[in-house]
Amino acid sequence: MDLKRKPRELGFSNQRVTGKEIQETQRENFINSLQGRVAGLSITPTTGLAGASSSIVLRGFNSLSLSNQPLFVIDGIIVDNQTLDENSNGGSGVGLASDRPNRNNDYSNRMSDLNPNDIESITVLKGPEATALYGSQASSGAIVITTRKAKNGKLGIQYDNSFRMQEITRFPEMNNDFDHGTNGASTNIFRYFGAPYADGTRKFDNVRNFFRAGFTQTHNIGVDFGTKKSVFRFSGSYLDQYGVIPNNRYTRLNFRLSNTTKIGKYIEVMPSINYIGSENRKPLRSGGGYMNSLIMWPVDDDIRNFQDPSGGKRALFSANANSDFDNPFWNVYNNRSGDVTDRYIASLGININPTKWLSLSGRFGYDTYKTDGFTIYHPQSFYISSAVNGTLDNYYRRYKGYNHTITATAKKSIGQFNGRAMVGTMWQDYETRMFSVTGNGLSVVGNTDSSNTSPNTRVRLLRNNFGEYNRSVIRQFAYFGEFSVNWKNQIFLTYTHRFEQASTLPEANRKYNYPGASVSAILSDIIPAIKKTNVINYWKVRSSIASTARLNAPYSTQSVFVNNLASGNGFSYGFTNANPNLKPERQNTYEIGTEMKFFKNRIGLDVTYYNTLVKDQIIENFRLSYGTGFVLNTQNAGSTRNQGVEIVLDVNPIAKKDFNWNIRLNFNRMWNEVLSLPASVTEYYLADTWIYLNARGGVIQGNPTTTITAYGYQRNNRGDILISPTTGLPVNDPIFRIRGDRNPDFTLGTLNSFRYKNWNLSFLWDLKVGGDVFNGTHMFMTINGKSKQTADRMTPRVIQGVLQDGRENTANPTVNNIVITPYYNEQFYGSVAMPEEAYIEKDVNWFRLRDLSLSYMFTQKQTRLIKQIKTLSAFVTVNDLILITNYTGADPAVNGTTAGARGVGGFGFDYGSLATPISVNVGIRAGL
Fold first, then answer.
1. Which CATH number fits domain 7-168+212-278+335-706+742-772+843-927: 3.30.530.20, 2.40.170.20, 3.20.20.140, 2.40.30.170?
2. Predicted TM-score of the model (pTM)
3. Per-domain boundaries in the chain
4. For the segment 853-869, what is each residue's pLDDT rounded down to a tens digit?
C-alpha cells in the first residue's frame, strides 16, 4: 500500500532502521542485524552455521499453537518468510513424508533470500492499529521494507565487497579425565564412568581439531541509469559462505531490476523483478547431530581418523560400527541435508494522482519459489537401526503467492480541520505444493535420489487427495477503510476498519471484521508555553486500540480419510480430529505512549505501554479420550494476556562539524500469562518443543506462556528435597510441572555511533537480564560422565534434603545423613536422581558486543589517481566479539527448534547447540 504518514500523525508505536545500519553489520541474513536495534524485537538464530534460520518475534508470544512471526512487506508487497515445517500433521500437511518434529534439521527462513544491499530502510510496525490494515497475517506485527531505487537518470555504479573470517571460541566445558565404561564394564560402552586415564596417556584436542575457520566472501554491484522520467536500478549480489564445521556451505545469488517511470503529469508506475538462487549444504543438529558425537568422542583417540580402509565408518569400541557413536567428521559427511532454491519476486506499483485531493494506488505482487532438498542417514549411523540400512528423505516444494491491493485516498480541508479518507481492497492467494518421499535401504551409499531406496519401504506424502502433490491453499479477500481528521495538525484522530474472509475457516465463520482507532496530540504545539521553557521542544502523546485475527491452518476444519498402510492399504480417519466449528483467534490490543524531544532535539524519548488479550486461542493437537476415535483435537479454547513496556532513548551528546556522537538505547520489559486452556488440559505443549528427555516448552493455566515444564525433585511442604532412605538419592517427581520461565526480566540494546572527519565508528551492545535456560547439553554430558560436574565422582557426599520416611511433612523431618560416593553409585548422575529440574539454569544474563564497525571515507584528493572513482571507503566489521554471561554452557542464545516451529518455539533450550562464532569482516565500497 502507498501509505505515507508523518511521524506526528501516528497514534501507534513504530521504529525505523536504515539500510546503512543493516549493511554495516555485514551479516548475510539481514534479520540477524535487527537484534538490539528495535525495542521489543527478539531474534534467535537456530545455530551459528552457514545458512541457518532465525526466529523473529515482536512483542512476545501471543498464540500458543500458531505462528508468532511478523509479516514481511517489501515495497507494499507481502512476501513469504516461511521455514520448512517438517511436521506433515500425519500426512495431511505440506511437511515431509517422514513427519518429523522441527528439531534435528534446519532450513533457511525465506527472508534470508533478500540481499541486504537492496534495503533502503526498514520500518517495524508494532501497534495494533498499524497492522489492522495489513490483515490477519500481520497479527504479530509487520516488518515493512523499502528498497533502494535510482534517484535520477544519471549513470551511477556502486561496488562493494566483504571478506569474513569466522571462528568458534566458546565450547561446553568437558571432563576428560576418565576412560569409557560403566559399572565396571568397558566393552562397547560410550559412557565415561570407567577408570581414570593412565598417566602419560596421549590426549587429543578433538574439539578444536574438528572446528575450522569459516570464510565468507560477498560481492555487490548496483547500477543506476535511465532518463529524467524513467529511472532504473539494477543490483547483483554473490555470497559464498563456508561454515565453521566441515561440509557446511551456503551460497546465494541475487539479481534485481527496478524501474520508476512517470507517464504524463498524473501517473507513476514502478515495476520490479527479483531473482534469488541459493544452495544450502548443512549438517544435522541437536540429538542426531555432530555436537553430541563430538562431546562423546574419547580424548585418547584422534577424531580426524574417522574412516576404515574401505572408506566406511571406523569401528572404535565394538566390532559393529553401527553400535558406536558417529565420529563427528564421519557424521557431517555422511548424515547430511541439502537444498537448492530458485525464487522470483515480481511487483508492480501504480500511483495515479488526477487531482490534488484524490489519489489512486495499486500494488500487485507475485512471489514464487521452488526448493529441491534431501536428508540422508548413512546405513552405519548410530542414529538409525542397523536393520534399516540407511534412510533418505526427498522433497520438492513449490510456493506461489499473489497479493493485490488497490486503494483510493481523498483529502479535504475545512477551516482548521484536515480530513483524509482511504478505502481499499486486498486479494491474497497463497499455494504451497509438496512432493515428498521417504524410504529405507540405500542401494548406493551417498546417493540422494529417492530411487536409491528399497521400493517396498517408500512412503509418499500423498494423503490429502490433491493428485501428485500435497497442497495447501489459503485465499483471503478483504476490503478496508481508514478515516483520519486533524485539527491544525496538532490533534489527530484515526479510525480503521477491515472486513475479511478466509478460505481456511468453515463457511459459517469465514467472514469476520475488526476495527482500530488511534489518537495523537502534539502538546508542545497545543500549549506554546511548553516550548518556551527551552527544555522541551517537542511533546507528543498517543494512544491506540485495535482488534485483529489469527487464522487456523488449512484443512483443519474437516476430518478426512487417510491411507492406512498397517491394515492392508485400507482407509481410516487419521489421528487428528478436525473441527468444523473453528473461529479465528481474536486479538485485542491497546497501547499508550509519549514522545518527547529536549534541548533542541539533542535528546529524544519514546515510551510505550501495550496490553494484548488473545481470546478463542486455536489450541492444536491436544490429547483426547481415545473413545472419540481420535488421538488429537483442535478447538477454540484458551486465552492469554501479554503486556510490556518499551523505552527508546536517543541522545546526541556532541554535534560538531568534525565530530558527532549519537547514542540510542532500546529497552523492553514484557510479562505474560496463560489465562485459560481447554477444560480437559492440565498442561499444553507442542511436540517440537520436547527437546530432550523430560523437559519441554509446556504451559499451564495461570502461569507465563514461556515456561519450561519438566520432571523434578519431590519435595516436602517446606520445599526440602526428599531423599530415599534406601539409596540416599533424591526421589524423582515424574510429573511435568513448571520448573522455569524463559522470558527475560528485560532486554536493552545500546547503539553508539561516532563520526570524526572521514572516520565512522559504531558498536552495538546487547544486554539481557533474567530468563531461564534448560541446559540439555550439560545434562547429556553429565549422564554420560563427560561434564565437569562428574569430575569429583570419587568424593563421598551427603545430598542435602530430608528422608522420605513418613516424617517429611512434620515439624521435625529426618535430615538426610546417608553418605554416597557417585563413583560407586553411578545412578547419582542419572536422570532419575538428577532430573531435568537440576539442569534449568535460573536467571541467565548476558552482555554481548554484537556489532563493531569502523570505516574510513577517502577524500577526492586521495583518490585523484583513479579518475573514475567518485567515492571510496574501506571498512572492518567485527560481529559477536565479546560475550559476558553467567551461563555455564557455551552460549545462552539458543533455540532447540528451527524457525519452522510454531507457538512459543524452542528458544531457551540448549541441546547439542553451537555457540555463535566470532566474525571479522574487511572490505571496500566504491562509487563510479
1. 2.40.170.20
2. 0.94
3. 7-168+212-278+335-706+742-772+843-927
4. 999 999 988 887 777 88
